[in-house]
Specification:
The complex is a heterodimer.
Chain A (H helix, E strand, L loop, with lengths): L1 H9 L10 H12 L2 E12 L2 E12 L3 E5 L6 H7 L10 E9 L2 E2 L7 H7 E4 L10 H11 L6 H11 L3 H4 L12 H14 L4 E5 L7 H14 L4 E5 L3 H7 L2 E7 L7 E8 H6 L4 H7 L5
Parallel strand pairs in A: 3-8, 3-9, 6-7, 7-8
Antiparallel strand pairs in A: 1-2, 1-4, 4-5, 9-10
Helix pairs in contact in A: 5-6, 5-8, 6-8
Chain B lengths: L13 H34 L2 H32 L3 H34 L10 H22 L2 H6 L4 H21 L4 H33 L8 H12 L1
Helix pairs in contact in B: 1-2, 1-3, 1-4, 2-3, 3-7, 4-6, 4-7, 6-7
The chains are: A alpha/beta, B mainly alpha.
């Protein structure tokens, strides 16, 4: 219930945010919790198959954490565990804990829908709702009981996603009519509309051209001032350019085909002086 | 938080640009530390202030530390930002420039070392041309670093010419000291000390030329040696003999 109250306080119109006592309290508790998210001995199973094994990893506040590694090593699975998205596939279960602000996300009392509001997600392929640009953003907030000025919210989210000027005259047009890069920024704006604390991005730029990619990366640098970002990327250079911390994932062995985080460090260290030979081989392109 | 109204407002690679700017600022800072060390080392010798020379040893540690700090930043930028073309030339050349600066700091330390080793022995002659060499060398360095930051090719090309002045002064000091030695061979050690000081300062000016070459390379992509007047000097010396 505390969480719901807190969430509602976030959804009050912008100016009042600072006055909220709940918010102040929450900010205080945020400072006390070192990490926004933290996994402890996290294992993820699809039925009998263990996709991810014993991951212990922190996600630091207002930083960009990249998860890199070869295909099929469980990067997206791990990312989806951060907002209980895996549960949407039947037969999925986890062991260990994922702590969000110090509380276990998988505690039976926690509502997964609420989790997904506070920890938003942007996917590989832009997936706007088949609705107007305006509704793409307003919908989630409205469902969640947003009572403030919706126009202001829509404008603010589009501004944060660097999309406002491009769509301000097309708010009633379908979100699907936008270009790929615009659609992806619309999805980012949509994620921002419920004012999450964390934004998970699963290959957010892999369907975009290099310039749109760099724009998304630069946008992330702005967004991290207010949000915590976790990004999965196949593009090592993107992780190197855009992230503050990097987690390197790899299969533990070829038989079990289960992935784990083999090294986690400051991105600068991962790309200049990794400790694990396998990370070194991967980032230098010698992994095979 | 910066608000972008449209994607076009996002300055591509703004983060990288800021980091490049920081590296340039750091190099300027390292340069000013070196400039100060050179001037102080000569001033300490002029005043025969041993304590001041000892301080230069401490300051040199700071110079070395700063150099490694910048080198590390450059390495991280090369590894994480995949610089290409101009950016690559700039970062690779910066690596070279900081090493030149660090060596210039070592020359200042060398001068401080001579002053300490001289102990109570008085100077063979009052220092007049040597501080002048230091002044010109430091001015050249300052201009070279300004040209580097602004990628000003014209200035970078014009600075090495001033090396002639330094060489001429060095030549003058050399001849003067030789006169002392010829008159009284016992002065040889004291003359030698001063000659080393002058030699160190002459090397400073040579290294400034290297910085200018790098600046031209960054701006134009042309890697060429600026013709050294030293070569001409030694050539003429040989011919005179």
């Amino acid at each position: 219930m505390e969480t719901t109250k807190y969430l509602k306080s976030l959804l009050t119109p912008k100016g009042k945010k600072q006055e909220s006592a709940v918010m102040a309290q929450s900010l205080q508790s945020q400072e006390n919790t070192k990490y926004v998210l933290e996994t402890k001995g996290l294992g993820i199973y699809y039925g009998d198959f263990q996709a991810v094994t014993s991951v212990n990893m922190p996600i630091k506040r207002h930083k960009i954490t990249a998860i890199i590694g070869p295909s099929g090593c469980g990067k997206s699975t791990l990312l989806r565990a951060f907002n209980r998205m895996n549960e949407l596939s039947p037969g999925t279960r986890i062991e260990g804990e994922v702590l969000f602000e110090g509380e276990n996300l998988y505690d039976p009392t926690v509502d997964p829908v609420e989790v997904r509001y506070r920890i938003g997600m942007v996917f590989q392929k832009p997936n706007p709702f088949p609705k107007s640009v305006y509704e793409n953003i307003a919908w989630g907030a409205r469902i969640h009981g947003f009572k403030g000025n919706m126009d202001e919210l829509v404008e603010s989210c589009l501004l944060q996603a660097a999309l406002w000027d491009e769509v301000k005259d097309k708010l009633k047009q379908s979100g699907l009519a936008l270009s790929g890069g615009q659609q992806q920024r619309l999805c980012i704006a949509r994620a921002l509309a419920v004012q999450p604390e964390v934004i998970l991005m699963d290959e957010p730029a892999s369907a975009l051209d290099p310039i749109a990619t760099l724009k998304i990366e630069e946008l992330m640098q702005e967004l991290k001032k207010n949000y915590t970002i976790v990004i999965v990327t196949h593009n090592m250079q993107q992780a190197a350019r855009a992230s503050d911390y990097t987690a390197m994932m790899m299969l533990t062995d070829r038989q079990t085909r289960s992935g784990t985080v083999i090294e986690y460090d400051d991105t600068r260290v991962i790309f200049t002086n990794p400790k694990d030979k396998r990370t070194e081989d991967y980032v230098t392109g010698r992994f095979g | 938080m910066t608000i972008y109204k449209r994607a076009e407002d996002i300055m591509l690679r703004k983060t990288f640009e800021n980091e490049i700017q920081q590296v340039k600022d750091d190099i300027l800072l390292l340069g000013s530390m070196v400039e100060q060390a050179i001037l102080n080392s000569v001033e300490a010798m002029k005043k025969r202030d041993i304590k001041a020379s000892e301080r230069i040893f401490e300051e040199d540690k700071q110079i070395n530390k700063k150099r490694f700090e910048i080198e590390n930043k450059l390495m991280v930028l090369i590894a994480t930002q995949q610089p290409m073309a101009h950016d690559l030339r700039l970062l690779a050349s910066s690596m070279e420039i900081i090493s030149e600066l660090e060596r210039m700091g070592d020359y200042a330390k060398g001068i401080a070392n001579i002053n300490i080793r001289m102990g109570d022995t008085p100077l063979l002659k009052p220092l007049i041309d040597v501080p002048r060499m230091a002044r010109i060398g430091v001015d050249m360095l300052h201009q070279a670093l300004t040209a580097f930051v602004n990628e000003d090719v014209e200035t970078a090309k014009s600075i090495p010419v001033k090396d002639d002045e330094v060489d001429a002064l060095y030549n003058q000091v050399y001849r003067e000291l030789m006169t002392f030695v010829i008159q009284d061979p016992k002065t040889i050690e004291r003359a030698n000390w001063l000659l080393w000081v002058a030699h160190n300062l002459e090397r400073v000016a040579d290294r400034v030329t290297n910085i200018c070459e790098r600046t031209i390379f960054i701006a134009t992509g042309e890697m060429a040696e600026i013709k050294s007047t030293d070569d001409e000097f030694w050539h003429s010396q040989r011919q005179q003999k």
